[in-house]
Amino acid sequence: MTEPTPESADYIDPADLPAARFAWFSPGCTHHSPANAKKLYQRGRQTSLFEEDFDEVAYANSERSRVTMSCVLRYVERNRPEILVVENVVEVTLWGPDRDGSTFAWWKRTLANMGYEIECLFLNSQFFPPCPQSRDRLYIVAWRAGNSRPNLDYRPLAYLWVPA
Q: Cα-flanking dihedrals φ and ψ of residue 144, to 5°?
């Protein structure tokens, strides 16, 4: 199954979604993850001596998946939620040519230029029940400049066992 494109009948522009005061986004993450896309990410569009080595469809799908982070910007630009959270893999911070993080830095600057303050939290999902997995995640929390900073101080419960 291919993802919808703007030309597809089932495509929905994120900017056209209803406005909300609080918005949660989970853009595509598999192609930011080194487990699934490191080879395509690092190789880019270059081909080898043998053209068939380059998979144009896989490359296009990989780019389309990564660019879903930009859907957040399209929504925020039109709807201006008071606060938003973007959840993704920690490797999204490496988004950019040669995994240098430059595109991720641009993404954050763009959000800041729209009038948002931003904090990045690196948390493991196992500390948020009922999640049954131990996976490191990035939670980008942004709130409109001038509003109070949300309380983002989270400390999971820890049990101290003292032998008798």
A: -65, 130
Chain length of the chain = 164
Cα–Cα distance list, 44 to 54, 69, 99 (Å): 10, 19, 11
**End-to-end alpha carbon distance in the chain:** 59
User: What are the chain's domains?
Assistant: 19-144 (3.40.50.150)
Q: How far apart are CA 111 and CA 77, in angstroms?
A: 9
Walk along the chain (164 residues) in steps of 10 and give the mean pLDDT of each run.
61 82 82 53 48 50 65 94 94 85 94 97 85 87 96 84 86
Single-letter code of the amino acid located at 130: P
